[in-house]
């Protein structure tokens, strides 16, 4: 990513990054390369960097690009200025919390999007146009008319034009899942799901006294014949599916199988909860299952994975008005409403197009990080190239819990397969999240350390004994 040469006028190393044609903004490539050089030891604290004009000439870029790159590197605490003497690699700051967190599934910060400015502008527009009293009082209807219209617009890529009255605004997907369980099932009922699935389903189901039973899945997701057999055997209250870039396996159920699953739900008269947070991040995803069985499926789409978790806004499409009312009653029993201010901000961003720009930035950054993971993890990477996470099957000499503990000892947090397992069995894999580390250079360092760990056998790993 970078190389060292010798300056002609001084016997000092000059650092030159290699720039890729399609590698993103050049100033960020330079900053990322500089950070990587510091991490791998090519550049050490106290090394002098070339003057900005000289580096601009060497790389054939304008001076502004170098200035922005150095400014970004200073922001990351990589560089320090020493007046007329020049710019030097800074000594590392002592970090009391040095864990590289690859366990939290959040969207990465996108290049080219000033999130602070976007937040200030959005809130300014909300406060200028909205009645502040309405922003600070109760809202009992599953979102205002404007919020539901924004939800219908958010769902347009999946379904086309929608009646906004069919959309309910919720304080996050987890709340939506819990309310659907309460509305559609009774204590003691069975919920069918894939053997490896989102832990939040089990948390809610267990809390409410429902039983989660696994249905066999293959490389294309839940097996239709096994679903039909399970429906006839268990008479489930509902079926839970996360069909696009599934958490954690990153499997996307193909269109043909989605149609088969929808047909089985109709034949067996069972409801499906389609939790679909990653659809808008996927490359050419199939139509949602809800398009093939609109009366059988409740569809959830959250902003947490495409924009930011802090909004705590999700949209639920429920076609049947009686079922929608039952859902609202259930939701109000534990989450009266979305915070009106954040709902208004989400609505503002969706309706003025800001959400589309932010989501496109997240999508592009996620794909860039997938390319990084594919390069570093080499033959072990089996991701789809999009979404927020990678499901990494482990070599036989590691088991997932053992690997997670070893990684934690080396300052890396990952999630073992056991955390996602329904029942006693689980595959030997870990989930790696690519968006939770804000800085791309630190993500690169974490993936490299993880790759080195995977290449070692457990017997060569020894934890400190104190």
UniProtKB/TrEMBL annotation:
Transmembrane feature ranges: none
Location of the HTH gntR-type domain: 24-92
Molecular function GO terms recorded: DNA binding; DNA-binding transcription factor activity; L-aspartate:2-oxoglutarate aminotransferase activity; pyridoxal phosphate binding
Matches recorded under Gene3D superfamilies: Aspartate Aminotransferase, domain 1 (3.90.1150.10), Type I PLP-dependent aspartate aminotransferase-like (Major domain) (3.40.640.10), Winged helix-like DNA-binding domain superfamily/Winged helix DNA-binding domain (1.10.10.10)
Entry EC no(s): 2.6.1.1
Similarity section: In the C-terminal section; belongs to the class-I pyridoxal-phosphate-dependent aminotransferase family.
Protein name as annotated: Transcriptional regulator
């Amino acid at each position: 990513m970078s190389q060292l040469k010798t300056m002609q006028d001084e016997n000092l190393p000059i650092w030159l990054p290699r720039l890729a044609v399609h590698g993103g903004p050049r100033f960020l490539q330079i900053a990322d390369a500089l950070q990587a050089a510091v991490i791998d030891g090519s550049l050490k604290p106290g090394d002098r960097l070339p003057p900005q004009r000289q580096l601009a000439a060497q790389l054939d870029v304008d001076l502004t690009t170098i200035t922005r790159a150095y400014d970004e590197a200073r922001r990351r605490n990589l560089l320090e200025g020493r007046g007329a003497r020049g710019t030097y690699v800074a000594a590392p700051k002592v970090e009391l919390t040095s864990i590289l967190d690859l366990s939290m599934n959040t969207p990465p910060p996108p290049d080219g999007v000033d999130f602070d400015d976007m937040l200030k502008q959005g809130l300014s527009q909300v406060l200028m146009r909205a009645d502040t009293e309405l922003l600070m009082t109760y809202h009992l209807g599953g979102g205002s008319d404007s919020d539901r219209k924004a939800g219908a617009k958010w769902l347009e890529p999946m379904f086309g034009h929608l009646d906004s009255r069919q959309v309910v605004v919720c304080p996050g997907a987890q709340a939506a899942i819990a309310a659907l369980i309460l509305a559609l099932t009774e204590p003691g009922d069975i919920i069918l799901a894939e053997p490896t699935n989102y832990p939040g389903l089990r948390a809610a189901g267990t809390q409410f006294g429902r039983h989660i039973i696994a249905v066999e899945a293959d490389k294309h997701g839940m097996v239709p014949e096994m679903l039909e057999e399970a429906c006839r055997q268990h008479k489930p209250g509902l079926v839970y599916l996360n069909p696009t870039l599934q958490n954690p396996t990153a499997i996307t159920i193909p269109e043909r199988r989605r149609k088969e699953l929808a047909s089985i739900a109709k034949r067996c008269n069972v409801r499906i909860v389609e939790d679909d947070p990653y659809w808008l991040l996927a490359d050419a995803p199939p139509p949602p299952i809800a398009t093939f069985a609109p009366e059988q499926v409740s569809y959830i789409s959250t902003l947490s994975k495409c924009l930011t978790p802090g909004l705590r806004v999700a949209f639920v499409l429920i076609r049947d008005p009686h079922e929608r009312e039952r859902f609202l009653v259930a939701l109000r029993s534990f989450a009266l409403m979305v915070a009106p201010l954040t709902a208004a901000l989400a609505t503002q961003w969706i309706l003025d197009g800001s959400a589309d720009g932010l989501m496109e930035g997240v999508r592009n950054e996620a794909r860039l990080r997938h390319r990084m993971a594919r390069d570093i993890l080499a033959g072990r990477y089996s991701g789809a190239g999009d979404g927020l996470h990678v499901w990494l099957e482990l070599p036989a000499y590691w088991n997932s819990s053992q690997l997670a503990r070893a990684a934690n000892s080396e300052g890396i947090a990952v999630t073992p397969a056991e955390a996602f397992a329904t029942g006693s069995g689980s595959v030997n894999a870990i989930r790696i999240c690519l968006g939770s580390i804000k800085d791309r250079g630190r993500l690169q360092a974490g993936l490299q350390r993880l790759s080195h760990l995977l290449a070692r056998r457990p017997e060569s790993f020894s934890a400190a004994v104190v």
